[in-house]
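Dear colleagues,

As part of the handover before I leave the project, I'm documenting each prediction I ran so the next person doesn't have to rerun anything. This entry is a single chain, and its sequence is reproduced below.
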Amino acid sequence: MRVIFFVMFLALALRGYEWVAHDHRMPWTPLSLADPVGPFTTRKIDALADDTPQCLGLLEAALIGYSPLPPVSAGANCGYDNGVTLTRSQPQTIAYSPAARTSCPMAVSLVLWENQIVKAAATRHLGSTVEQIITYGSYSCRRIGGGQTGNYSEHATANAIDIAAFRLADGRTVSVAGHWNANDERSRFLKEVRDGACELFATTLSPDYNEAHEDHLHFDQARRGGSRYCR
């Protein structure tokens, strides 16, 4: 009888080990673009900044079309050496206008955001699909707020993007400037994609933050060890 109980205990322990060792919610499991967003997803994305081959490998494993960008060097505070463009040539993908030219970790984040948040929110609130995301761009060698002093923006290293609007398959356009406070399905869609972004990006800023963001959503992957700021 003791042998039977020991074997049962061992089997349960092995099953528990397999779950702990491979569950995507654990901090030590590798990031996969097929897994749901978990409590350590942002921290895992943050680590990709130090491992461009792994980052590119994630895009390749998920069959995400991309093209590497030539390195950009613009002084001590601006430029990047891990930039990519999401080519979006596959069916069922969302195009960017202009094309999303970002750091690789930002591209990984955008893919997760599109697939796990934007698509479901568009179906639920708008009864359509998103065909194009309109942006104000990613890379810009400037300081936060565009001033002459202060810290440089994450845009200065292509580690941020500003989202202005979403063009739907049925011809409608839902914009942050025009519909954030519409109090209808368009504003509910915009706030859901903002809330979902808060689980993925280190920084998520919206019109709820300040007037400087009244016409766009700002996402970035500032390196803060996985901590997040959402407004």
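The chain is about 35% helix and 20% strand. Confidence is low (pLDDT under 50) at residues 9-14, 16-22.

All the best with the project,
I.
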